[in-house]
Amino acid sequence: MPHFSGRLAIVLVPALMFSALFVAGARPRTAEPQTQKSEQKAGAITAPKTSAVPRRDLSGTWEPANGPSDGIQPDGVKAMPSDGKPEHQLPYTPYGLQAYKSHHALFGADENLPEFNNDPRDKCEPLGFPRMDFYNLRETQILQNEYKVAILYEYGTIWRIIWTDGRPAPKLTDGGVLIGNEVKEPRYYGYSVGRWVDDTTLVVETVGMMGEDRVWLDTAGRPISDQARVEERLHRVDRDHLEWSVTIDDPKMYTKPWIAMNKFPMKLENPHRDIVEQYCSPAEMENYNKRFANPASAPAGQAPQR
Amino acid sequence: MRNKLTAVLVAAIGIVTVSVPLLAHHGTAAFQNEKKVTLKGTVTEWVWSNPHCLLEFDVKGDDGNVVHWIGETQNPVSITNVGWSKSAIKAGDQVTVVLFPVKNGQPLGRVSAVTLPNGKTLMTGEGESKEVRDKLEHDARAAQPY
């Protein structure tokens, strides 16, 4: 049809011109412009390709957003530090208060003298979960695949696994947890399962942790029992920011659930960042006590040791 | 013994005392939190360890007596974050150390700063304001982003 040919020409010619421009503008893959090479030299941070929020993905190296020291939590859990303020008083059961008093912490509102210290940390015992969230929370690596999320803590080079393969949380029972028909032992780092409640929020439930005879909740000596349920919410706010929240539900120690960490902000680090070890070595602890801590605590008037 | 030790310190080394508040949450009960002393000496050992790094150094008084001092810092991660490293200090280095001494008179203290043979001063941030400590962390991170 004549008018069809005319219209076709109108469409085709611009299309051909556009194609020609497109081809002319395309760069061969092997020729890298000079600016890209100089950006990749050591010390430069390589910009990721997109600023979109990764979907159901917490991967990365994360550090407290308000500074490297913001997660140390020397006086106890971030949202409820042991500072004597009434609003930071925890809802202890009578047993919980008794357990707290039996913990002679070096820090917090009821700090003790070093000679009474009985923090298992100072014997390099495993801190366990959830204390790992409340003790020197520093550069934290999160790796994941389709089955699990692994959290790698800087302190102690400790990891824990959160199953995201759909398995249910174990049931708490006497002496541990019930998985199927089998009673499994309590674990320092518990048994964690996670589910995505939306594309950016992982809700994690952990049960089956060690009891108060083995672990503390925090450096201020607050207690946690083997009957605790801990819920974490890890929410990726945007590509570079994560918010970490923790709720403690431990009817043996506390009369009601309470929030121990409330949207604690973490920021994404350069993925090439090398993380320094922070560890507890009994040999180094003994050396420190012998060379420094014991002489520093000695009564006045003694001769120097050397 | 304590009087002799004090006399050695006062007469021979030159103490500078400055009143500063120390961070209560770092377990500072054993330290004279309000007074810093400045000591010049020779490093015998720089112990990179947890829970505290230890700077061991000999201070020679005018009377010829050598007093062996130990200054502690926070753990390696914390001081790496404010610019320190294991390789920054070695045995034999002539250093100037500013520290908060312990209350009981022993030659022990918590380090505030060390000036190295090359003139560079490393600060721990102990006894400093949050602004100073934040800047130490910021500068250390800017110098080595990864």
Task: Describe what this molecule looks like in 3D.
The complex is a heterodimer of chains A (306) and B (146). Chain A is an alpha+beta fold and 306 residues long. Chain A has a domain at 60-272. Chain A is 18% helix and 25% strand. Chain A is built from 4 helices and 12 strands; from the N terminus they run H-H-E-H-E-E-E-E-E-E-E-E-E-E-E-H. Chain A has helices spanning 2-25, 34-39, 94-102, 282-297, and strands at 60-64, 140-144, 148-152, 159-163, 171-173, 176-179, 182-184, 191-198, 201-207, 229-238, 241-249, 258-268. In chain A, strand 8 (191-198) and strand 9 form a beta hairpin. Chain A is globular, with a radius of gyration of 27 Å. The N and C termini of chain A lie far apart (108 Å). By secondary structure, chain B is an alpha+beta fold. Chain B has a single domain (2-143), classed as OB fold (Dihydrolipoamide Acetyltransferase, E2P) (Beta Barrel), CATH 2.40.50. Chain B is built from 3 helices and 6 strands; from the N terminus they run αβββαβββα. Chain B has helices at residues 2-13, 76-80, 130-143, and strands at residues 37-47, 54-60, 66-72, 94-101, 108-115, 121-123. Chain B has a 5-stranded mixed beta barrel. The longest helix of chain B has 14 residues, at 130-143. Chain B starts with a helix and ends with a helix. Classes of the chains: A alpha+beta (306), B alpha+beta (146). Chains A and B meet through helix 4 of A and strand 3, helix 2 and helix 3 of B.
